[in-house]
C-alpha cells in the first residue's frame, strides 16, 4: 500500500474466500480495540464499518501514516500504517483461529487502499461518495433498515447517538464539512458502489 500525506484513502479487506471474519459481538468489539491500539496512532480515521465478512476504513494519511519503516528488502514499501495494519490483522487472526479451532488465513492476502481524494477529471466527489458508501454498507447488504441500526460503524457517533471517539470528528466537520444534516443527506442519495469503481 502506498500513501500520500494529507490525501484520503479507502482501506478494505475481506475474509479469505469471503468467509466470515466476525462470529459474535465480542469479535467486533475486540477488532475495534485492535484498531484503537494499532491504527488510531498512525492515521486520522474518518469512517469505518465492520461487516460479517469484510471491513472498510476511510482514513486521511498524515506524517505518521507515511513514515518509512526500515526494511532490508528495498522492494517492500513498508510504512508505519502498513506495518501496524499487518500486526493488527495477524493478532486478530490468531485470536479467531483459537476461538474457532482452525488454521490458515482469515483474511485475503493483501489489504487494499484506494486514494479517493483529489480532483478527478470528471469532477466527482469520491470522498463524499466513499464516506456514504461505507456507512450505508449494512443497509445495502440488507442487514438493517437504517445506518443507525448497525452498531459496528461510526454512524451513531456522527449523528450524536453515541459518544465514540475512534474517528476524528473535528476533521470530519471542519475539513470535510460534514454536519449531521449533510451526512444524513449524503446517505439518503448514496449511489451503490457498483456504479463507483473509482472507490476500489
From TrEMBL:
SUPFAM superfamilies (UniProt xref): Transposase IS200-like
Domain annotation Transposase IS200-like: ranges: 4-137
Gene3D superfamilies reported for this sequence: Transposase IS200-like
Domain of life of the source: Bacteria
GO biological process, one term: DNA transposition
GO molecular function: DNA binding; transposase activity
SMART domains on file: Y1_Tnp
Record-linked InterPro entries: Transposase_17, Transposase_17_sf
This protein's name: Transposase IS200-like domain-containing protein
